[in-house]
Amino acid sequence: MYSDLNISEFTQQLQNTNLDFQTKQIKKNDIITTYIKNRNQICILKKGNADIIRYDKNGNKTIIETLKANDIFGEVFFPINTNSELFVIAKTNCEVIFFLYDDIFKYRNALDNIFFNLFLNRTIKQNIRIELLTKRSIKEKLLSYFSFLSIEYNKKDFTLPLSYTDLADYLCIDRSAMMREIQHLQKENIITKNGYNIKLKK
Amino acid sequence: MYSDLNISEFTQQLQNTNLDFQTKQIKKNDIITTYIKNRNQICILKKGNADIIRYDKNGNKTIIETLKANDIFGEVFFPINTNSELFVIAKTNCEVIFFLYDDIFKYRNALDNIFFNLFLNRTIKQNIRIELLTKRSIKEKLLSYFSFLSIEYNKKDFTLPLSYTDLADYLCIDRSAMMREIQHLQKENIITKNGYNIKLKK
DNA sequence: CATATTTTGTTGCAAAAGCAACAGAAATTT
DNA sequence: AAATTTCTGTTGCTTTTGCAACAAAATATG
Fold this sequence. Notes:
2 copies of one chain form a homodimer.
Chain A: H1 7-15, E1 22-26, E2 31-34, E3 41-47, E4 50-55, E5 61-67, E6 72-73, E7 87-90, E8 94-100, H2 101-106, H3 110-133, H4 138-153, E9 157-159, H5 164-171, H6 175-187, E10 191-194, E11 197-200
Antiparallel strand pairs in A: 1-8, 2-7, 3-6, 3-8, 4-5, 4-7, 9-11, 10-11
Chain A binds a DNA duplex through α6.
């Protein structure tokens, strides 16, 4: 999309640095990687096609992302969440370069690092959004959102940073249907609510 | 999230470069920017909160992204689509730094540029995904997806790069409901379909 | 501080989407 | 090339979600 990418040239450049990386061949239908908290892997798909997928408790498969040659992926980009294990599956035979975030980070200067981090934070934020939007019901969307807030604030009770009207717009659902679902969550004793204050009861 | 961001330090560093940028104060509820094709703006929100929003033809507002201090945004990250004009609205008084992609790009060396582009392409890809997932109905999700393929291939007819089963997983919808909707699109004469071949009739 | 505007909370009803099931086609494996 | 597996196409039924509407509460504005 933006400018020319030449991964094989890039790979050659890599050889001339001290940057640690590994290249692997992966067979069709095999697992390229699973996202593991704190490993902070960054991968580049050099050849082939792959999917980042998740199965939820109802057995629904979600394709989180489809990957093709030159795509970058890895748990660095994904805020790992207890409820979901992510797999990257080779759809065809693949060639993959594996890095660690910290190794790449060392290779950058001060001004670059700021941009690097702004990009990284942006992509993590987008992934949170995608994680919410891929949930199949209003209830799951809400619970995932509350769970993210709970992790962010490191508390079981927190104040919504959004009005309910805005929250519905953010989750792309009908506000009245959302309010109904919040009532259900209270009746089922999963949350308590007091104005914008939400408490997760588990 | 990853490492320490210090935007005011960053701003000072910027003063010592020849990088072109502008800083503006924007009042609450004012429009910070609209996304305009080919302007390739990159912005950093230095202070305040803002939303990236879209109104669809039914008047549904969608919050595409919520922005807070240190967040990066701009049309560089968004594949602009004829159906949707995006606005960035200040939720509080804001201070914003404006750059152009090309100016920032000049400031980077060869190895960096590859990573820079990989990041950029990744974020664009995520935005496409978010764009699809924020659509309110199966019909709109399908039409948006077809529209993206049509733009990517630069043709009104194209072959799906996914099975129908996978497409449903990608769009997070039920396969049978999706097939039913594809039938409707054919009956309404909006598309023709022959196996994995789709033609947009407009 | 009185008035206007926006947001919340709620409901009955309509529409959309999901679920289950299965036959036939296509693709893959042995 | 036969057998197995996966995918498509379809349908009736159920559940979920959206829509419309409105009163009460909260917030913003002159």
